[in-house]
Amino acid sequence: MNKIFRSVKITLILVFTLLLISTSTLAVAQYDGGEVTQIEIDNSGSFTATTSSAGVTYEITGNPGSTGTVTTTVYNGNPQATAKIPEGIGLTKYVVVAFDFNSQDFEQATLTFTYTDADVAGLQGPFAIYKYIPETNEYIQLEGELDTTAKTITVTLNSTNDPLFAIGGSDTSALTEAAPTTLWIAVAVAVIVIVLVVFIIIKRQDSKGIDKKPSGYWRPGI
User: Fold this and answer.
1) Is 162 helix (H, G, I), strand (E, B) or coil?
2) What is the pTM of this model?
3) 83: which residues sit within 8 A by CB, 6+ positions away?
4) DSSP 50-112
C-alpha cells in the first residue's frame, strides 16, 4: 500500500510540474520584451530612430528641443484576444507603441514596420497595419504604404495615444495562432501517458503481492 501511495504522489508531482512548465512557457511566449528609445527633437524639428528588437523606424516631428521617450513592445500573441478582427483577416506581430512625450510638443510621427516571411506565414498580401481601438474593442485597418521589396509598411500618426498595432493580411491558414492550443493538447497527452505508466506499475505490484505466498502459509492436509 505504501508503494501505491508513493506512486500516486510521484504522479501528482510530475503532473503539477508539467502543468507549471507549460503555463510558464505560454506566458513567456506572449511577450518579447520592450525597448525604450530616447526622443530629442533637433533644431530642424525632427527625430529619427530605429528599434533593433521590434524593427520599427520612427520619424517624429515636433517642437525643437523637446524630449521624451517611446517604448516599443512586441507580442507573439494578441494582447487583446477578445477584440473583433475584420472577417477573413489574420493578424501577426503585435506591437505596442507607448509615447511618453508632451502632446503639445508633438506634431506627427511616421512609423515604418518591417516584417519577414516568417512573420506573415499563413497570411496572404497585400499586407497592412491594423490598429486596436479600445472604445469599440476592435482592430481597424490604417491607410499606409506597403513596400513588398523592402518588406515594410509605413503609417502616419497624428497623436501620441496610438498604442497597439498589428500586421494583417488575408488569413489562409486554419491554424492561425493555434500554438497555445497545440501545446495544451501535448500537455494533456503527456499527463495521460504518465498516469497510464503509473497505473501499469501499480497493477504489476499488486499482481506480485497476490502471487507471493507469505511465510508459514498453511495448506489443508499438511
Assistant:
1) coil
2) 0.64
3) 132, 137, 138, 139
4) E-TTT-EEEEEEESTT-EEEEEEEEESS-SSTTSB--TTEEEEEEEEEEEEE-TTTEEEEEEE
